[in-house]
């Protein structure tokens, strides 16, 4: 069996049952994922910047290029028919001030709606992480940092 790189996938070429070449594709991630489990606020924005709907969910995992949100609940029951972007604002003390933007690449409807995004922006509001001047940076001795 020979193995060749082909874009983001690996192509394995081997002989099939009758001797003819057979190709098998193995998915390779662009970046490693980190499990998060953080609550988030979600905003769906149309191309002109107008708000379509808001909601909430939980970021399951994140990487340098994307993230996956599960357990999504929106105010509106339908999604836009035209192109839109998604703004994700992390909530809670641990991830306060983190905002990610992206384009949806996968939507899994059902009892628990899930959405995967390709990230287009990522920012951290340091004031939200450290709201007082008395905040100390994270260290082994100070585990109370909010970011």
CATH superfamily of the largest domain: predicted glycosyltransferase like domains
Radius of gyration: 20 Å
Order of helices and strands: EEEEEEEEEH
Helix segment tally: 1
Class from helix and strand fractions: mainly beta
Q: If you consult CATH, what is the topology of the largest domain?
A: Thrombin, subunit H
Widest beta sheet: strand line-up = 4-5-6-9-8-7
List the SSEs and their pairings:
Layout: E1 2-6, E2 9-15, E3 21-27, E4 34-46, E5 51-62, E6 66-74, E7 84-90, E8 98-108, E9 113-124, H1 126-129
Antiparallel strand pairs: 1-2, 2-3, 4-5, 4-7, 5-6, 6-9, 7-8, 8-9
Describe this structure in words.
The chain is mainly β and 147 residues long. It folds into two domains: 1-30, no CATH class; 34-129, Thrombin, subunit H (Beta Barrel), CATH 2.40.10.220. Helix content is 3%, strand content 56%. The chain is built from one helix and nine strands; from the N terminus they run βββββββββα. The chain has one helix at 126-129; strands at 2-6, 9-15, 21-27, 34-46, 51-62, 66-74, 84-90, 98-108, 113-124. The strands form two sheets. The chain has a six-stranded antiparallel barrel. A three-stranded antiparallel β-sheet has the order 1-2-3, with no helix packed on it. A hairpin with a 2-residue loop joins strand 1 and strand 2 (9-15). The longest helix is centred in the last third of the chain and has 4 residues, at 126-129. The protein is globular, with a radius of gyration of 20 Å. Residues 1-8 and 135-146 have low confidence and may be disordered.
